[in-house]
Design goal:
333 residues; Glutathione-S-Trfase_C_sf; 10 helices; GST C-terminal domain-containing protein; Glutathione S-transferase Yfyf (Class Pi), Chain A, domain 2; Thioredoxin-like_sf; Glutathione-S-Trfase_C-like; ten-stranded mixed beta sheet; alpha/beta
Length: 333
Amino acid sequence: MVQHNDIVLFHYSFSPFARKVVWYLTLRGIEYGQCMQPIYLPREDINALGVKYRRIPIMSIGRDMYCDTRLILQKLEAKFASGALGASQPDEKAIEKLLESWTIDGGIFVRAAQAIPPEMPLMKDPKFTKDREDYMGRSWELESIKAMRPEALTHIRDAFVFLETGLLADGRQWVLKTEKASMADIEAVWPFHWLLELKGALPPTLVSKEKFPKVFAWIKRFSEAVSVAKSSAPQPTTLKGAEAVKYVIQADFSEPEGNVDASDPLGLKKGQDVESWPIDSGFKHHDRGKLVSLTSTEVVLASQSKVGGKEVRIHHPRWNYRIRAVSGGGVKL
């Protein structure tokens, strides 16, 4: 039996969102299991667990499946509260939240994805480009990628300027002037770290160590902090697909099922058949199930695994997600 706090992270190494979670687990020294996934659909392990959500990463803790990096990090902060990386003061919490929104909702990641070099082998793989068209809802034809790239690079350069002349201008080591990397650093650094590792993504005439010394030094410090933490952190237990599925469906739930907020604007009832899905990307893939819990920040659906027929609870955040009642949904539990 593997020992990893009942955590299984379903991800692939190229995903910048998955790296956020891996960094967090590493910096915290939290033991976990992982099940590596294909870079594009289908992902049979996740499908076997009854989850339609198509984005990566997904984290299971027992038979609770957590979707969306924002929710995953919130759950880890709550489950391992001692030594949490999140800010404690209101003004620092605000900065942390604004950085999260800036990199995800503010368009930084979208522009980073548009800056992927057209010469990368993946960009010539029709399965990958078709998958990303499904994910983003726009063309990933090579000519479209080439046409968008100059505009994307302009926006990314502007983001580097903001970091260099704004957030990091006073020479601080970490975003919140903490003694070590915090959640605010994770929320800010991930798209830029990812781009710098993509050979040819950022032309040196636009973005370089000479032009943005403070940003480059900060990214290097962060990488070194993760490397140091990795040297002493428990190594993740890697599970094959069938092994991970079996482990999840045989586990217990990790948290109580909760209640449905009677004052919620949607007016949904506990036990009602509903579907939930993200509206910013991956929006063609809807999870369906019986409504278990609904709060201002989270919706939980009870679905059924395709292997073993066990109830699995799927957790989505509320931000940038849509939830609606379905009739005749055929949800069997």
